[in-house]
Specification:
The protein has 476 residues and is of the alpha/beta class. The chain has helices spanning 26-37, 53-62, 76-89, 100-104, 124-136, 215-218, 227-241, 257-269, 282-298, 313-318, 325-338, 355-366, 386-393, 418-434, 436-448, 453-459, 466-475, and strands at 2-7, 15-16, 19-20, 41-46, 66-70, 95-98, 117-119, 146-150, 153-156, 197-200, 203-204, 223-224, 245-248, 275-280, 301-309, 341-348, 371-378. Strand 13, helix 8 and strand 14 form a beta-alpha-beta unit. Helix 1 crosses helix 5 and helix 16 packs antiparallel against helix 17. The longest helix has 17 residues, at 282-298.
């Protein structure tokens, strides 16, 4: 069969030098590789330009027998629109939806007639079985992890067991992707204009149970790929695509620090010359210690994305984050000493946090070491999460218009009015990037690592006042 797998456009991504900071749709790439290994023709279409022209051209030239579309909650309506576009161009071709939203709300996958199947959780085995059944003209009643229709009813066959041996999967297929378009929005050694960036997923799942996170719904516990399997992919990326920068997209990359060290050391021994960036938790930094973080920096780990989410112990406890406020300063100190850039994520709009509590919590960030880059989002109750259930129980949802659930605005009843939250966020970010303590941290970092100056100029072209930009430029 001929199968097109589509990652629809996503709004709100950071723009760098005319290109949006996007990453490859790795779930679709794994599924495509499995289909190709089974003898099918598969094409991954990533709509990075936001237009329908890419899709229309793919439909016309490839003439698919089946179309798969990945969906997050905030672009679920866009996924349905693309499903309609596929049927209009391909003669009522069957369409399957997958991704986090479908995994959280399986029965909602087929609320619209434009979708014929829903794939819940890991898609590799489910999609292969679906394709086999369509080829043979068989029914889908026995396919675990699938949502389908039968006699006018929507049927969910129940969950599929997790894939235990991820090393048995083929290397993800990226041959159809615009690999020159991917960037990372962080000033980490290689300026975005010089990046050849790829995402690598080394494990699925997470040890932690943060109430707002959809990972437990989609994946569950951590299952990792063998180190050699990951290194084989890294070699492939360097040799075939000229990649110089890798984003480890695992939500829990540091679940086994010794494994992290093996991967980075293996890449170094192979002479791949890669720069790395990953997620990391506060707790894992402290567990690894300063010495190990310095060693990882020397092996190429030059940046991390850290989920701070709040400086309030009460908030952290309520959302089940594994760290507390006192741990944050120590972890950031270790990363600062190691020379690892930190981009912090912070959430506002908790339904119990008042303005009198939020303002001092935000102020704490300015005095912390290492955080030079910050993005602030609104806590959002994604379907299937514990937080979602809590908000439904307390009648806190303002609306279920999923287009609004992009973390760029509040969808909850909160003690702070939505307009005031937006004002606080805007004003604080403006002040954060012009605060002399933050500027001084950046200045000292560039003095320490002069090659970073070009990255800072590209990543932060507008956030700083002219005087601040000149300060950073003159250091170089």
């Amino acid at each position: 069969m001929r199968i097109i797998l589509i990652n629809p456009k996503v709004a709100g991504l950071r723009d760098i030098g005319g290109l949006r900071a996007e990453a490859e749709p790795m779930g679709l790439c794994f599924i495509a590789a499995c289909l190709e290994r089974a003898g099918h023709e598969a094409r991954v279409v990533h709509v990075v330009d936001g237009s329908d022209h890419t899709l229309e051209r793919a439909f016309a030239t490839f003439e698919p027998d089946l179309v798969g579309i990945s969906s997050y909650t905030h672009n679920f309506s866009e996924s349905l629109r693309v499903a309609g576009l596929a049927k209009a161009h391909c003669g009522d071709v069957p369409v399957m939806l997958g991704g986090p939203h479908v995994s959280a709300l399986p029965e909602q996958a087929l609320v619209d007639e434009r979708a014929d199947f829903g794939v819940v959780g890991e898609g590799e085995e489910t999609v292969l079985e679906l394709v086999r059944s369509l080829e043979r003209g068989e029914g889908q009643d026995g396919i675990a992890g699938l949502v389908h229709r039968a006699a006018g009813d929507v049927i969910y066959n129940g969950p599929r067991a997790r894939i235990q041996d991820l090393g048995a999967l083929p290397i993800p297929s990226r041959c159809d992707l615009p690999m020159d378009r991917y960037r990372q929005a962080a000033p980490v050694w290689i300026p975005p204009s010089q990046q050849r960036c790829a995402s690598v997923n080394t494990a699925r799942g997470c040890r932690f149970g943060c109430t707002f996170c959809a990972t437990p719904t989609t994946w569950g516990k951590v299952i990792g790929r063998p180190t050699d399997h990951v290194l084989l992919e890294l070699e492939h990326l360097v040799e075939d695509y000229g990649i110089n920068y890798v984003w480890f997209s695992d939500e829990d990359f540091f679940y086994d620090p010794s494994r992290v060290f093996e991967i980075l050391e293996g890449a170094h021994e192979r002479g791949l010359g890669l720069i790395f960036r990953s997620f990391i938790s506060v707790r894992d930094v402290i567990h690894c210690g300063m010495r190990m973080m310095k060693d990882l920096h020397d092996l190429g780990l030059r940046g991390v994305l850290m989920g701070i989410e709040s400086t309030s112990d009460d908030v952290l406890r309520r959302v089940r984050k594994p760290h507390r406020g006192k741990d944050l300063a120590q972890a950031l100190h270790f990363l600062d000493e190691a020379g690892i850039h930190v981009r912090g994520s912070y959430m506002i709009g908790y339904p119990w946090e008042t303005e009198d509590e939020l303002i001092p919590n935000l102020e704490c960030l300015l005095g912390l070491p290492a955080v030079e880059d910050l993005y602030i989002t609104y806590v959002t109750p994604f379907p299937g999460t514990v937080f979602w259930e809590e908000c439904k129980k307390e009648n806190l949802l303002l609306a279920e218009d999923y287009d609004l659930w992009d973390t760029g605005g509040t969808v909850l009843r909160t003690p702070i009015p939505a307009s005031r939250l937006a004002e606080i966020r805007h004003d604080y970010l403006a002040r954060f990037y012009s605060d002399q303590r933050v500027v001084q941290r950046m200045t000292e970092r560039i003095r320490r690592f002069p090659c970073l100056a070009a990255s800072y100029r590209e990543v932060f072209p507008k956030q700083f006042a002219q005087q601040t930009r000149e300060t950073l430029v003159h250091v170089h």
